[in-house]
Amino acid sequence: MTNKIRVRVIWLVATLCYLPLFAYALDIESVLRDLGKGLLLLAVILSGLILFIIGFFKSLAALTKGVTSDFGTSPASENNAETSSLPASAAGNELPPVAAVTWAIAGRIFFLFLPVLVAWSVVSAFIAGAWHYVVFGLPVLAAGLYLWRTNRPNSAVGLAVSYALVGLVSAAIWEARQNNQPSSPRLYTSRISDLSLPDSVKPYTYVEHMPQFAGGDDALPHYVQQELRYPAEARANQAHGVVKVGYAVGTDGRVLAAQLMQGFDAGCDSAALQFVRNLTFSPGIQNNKPVVVAKTLTVEFSFASGTPEVRVLP
Fold it and tell me: What region holds the TonB C-terminal domain (predicted)?
């Protein structure tokens, strides 16, 4: 391996060592909950800090000697600017670039981060899906290869690292949005026809006169909001989500059976089921006869207003 290739490899590896730091800073995952990741983070912090300090002072020393940065230089001269900025040992041999994060490559990472982020924001506004970040990476890869082939490795590596940082930022934003969303509901395969009713009972889903809650259907949401209690444990854990209950209203207006169709928390699911079982209605009428009618009630347990709230969804 030639010294020139070794320089490129060390630059790339040392720069990538900072990615776990960005992941931790953006709270993509809790490193503190894993001792191994915590020790790895500590090692990266110490090594990265040492590299940064050495790189800063060596870059400063190179600048004071009149070595200009390769910003604004022609593509053909970038490689010469890199090798000429390396300090020489007493024996006249080039020292290994312990200061891998040099002024040139670090500058490109941060200067290229903004346009890459802006471009990513524009692309993500039109493309949605798990693959859109990969699609966005194709022109970035092409641009990076072009910069590398035209003897601008600093810009190529800077562009690649900027793309990785944009990915970390996007992942952090996505996870933050996921954490603010209601808990993922457990979807049940039960249907209204699956209600535990005698074989002789065939519930209707629509009749001439549907069962009505006392005071009218408009009174049911208010009654749910007033009487259905947010379970204490769910309230303490700020559990929030949607519960959907299927039930059958008998010929006497009482609920014959109720079954959970969608839920998210055991306490909230149980509270909604028990609440529905105690409801009473005027019976459904078909051909002037009371009949059994199947209905559903969808209830949301929410903290959207900052306080626990229960409401009926359409």
Answer: 215-310
